[in-house]
Amino acid sequence: MITTTCAVCETDAADQEVYADTLPHDAATSARFSARRTPDRVHYRMVRCGNCGLLRSNPILSDEELASLYRESTLTYEDEATFARRTYGNYLRQCISSLPAGIEPRQARLLEIGCGNGFFLDQALQSGFGDVAGVEPSLDAVALAPDSVRHKIVTDIFRDGLFPANHFDIVCAFQVFDHLAHPNEVLQSCRKVLKPGGLALFINHDVGAWTNRMLGSRSPVIDIEHIYLFDTSTMAKIFRKNGFEVLNVFPVENSYPLYYWAKMAPLPKNWKEKMIPALKKTSLGRVELAWKAGNLGLVARIGGA
Ligand SMILES: [Zn+2]
Predict the structure, then answer these.
(1) Cα 229 to middle of ligand 1, angstroms
(2) What is the Å distance from ligand 1's center to 272 Cα?
């Protein structure tokens, strides 16, 4: 296991233990590192930085082990992607007016980090974005990408050198940032590939949302896949630390069918295994509910436009 330090303060001197780890012997399986799997309350030891309030896992698996787990992870989100696609598409449209001066979507280049099977890249093309690119470590996810975008996805972990510098108008990351062991390095790599005035649109868990605070260690965000868990304050801090101007941090409204909310809720596993497939077949289970359920969004810009 590897020890971590606060990504904002770069020290572990102010650490306070919040939760002891719940790791079983077989904690590190690729199924457990698959996107949007049913939460199982397996997590690392969690600490909070007393300086800035950032919550993080410590210690964690090595970079090599994490890279291998994500490479072998499988796609489990199937039809939920339909709903996520619409949510992310709405927030992308709200960013258009903040694109670098004079750039219209059809001239804009968009990069998505951790694009899974490319469902959002396809949405961005349909929303009129001229050029899209993605990067995704899961071989299984990329193999399932639609023809419209598969050739635009690099199968790798996002890092320096994969894309030209000074190239993109907007970089997006959805439910990715809290999975990263080196968030500062990733933000610096984002800065390099963005043009002056380029935007970042990130959506991830908000550990400060009332839902997550109320559930404590039972919250699905307290999970082995998450290394740093941000709230609106620590999210803004880490972007500013890396030279971004934060334009907006906001609660995200997600719209999902009732059966999906039930899947993510802290309900007994036996109940979920029996009830969710049944619920999915009923019209009640497929009723869509929009809710600010504990995700945050951030829009930030790099200087120089
Ligand atoms: Zn800190």
Answers:
(1) 12
(2) 37
**Tokens representing residue 30 in the block:** 């690729």
Backbone angles phi, psi at 157, to 5 degrees: -90, 135
Ligand 1 centroid distance, CA of 208 (Å):
15
CA 114 to chain centroid, in Å, comes to 8
Ligand 1 centroid from CA 55, angstroms: 8
Q: What is the pLDDT of residues 178-223, one digit of tens each?
A: 999 999 999 999 999 999 999 999 999 999 999 899 989 988 899 9
Report residue 177 as tokens: 């940032």
Cα–ligand 1 centroid distance for 199 (angstroms): 25
Q: Domains of the chain by range and CATH?
A: 15-302 (3.40.50.150)
- Residue 145 CA to ligand 1 centre (angstroms): 38
Burial (CB count <10 Å: 0-12, 13-18, 19+), residue 174: buried
Q: Determine the Cα–Cα distance for residues 137 and 142; give it in Å rounded to an integer.
A: 8
pTM of the model: 0.91
Largest CA distance in the chain: 55
* 3-state secondary structure at position 114: coil
Indicate the residue type of 7: A
Ligand 1: distance of its center to the CA of 109 in Å? 34
Query: Which residues of the chain are under the pLDDT cut of 70?
Result: 36, 76-79, 304-305
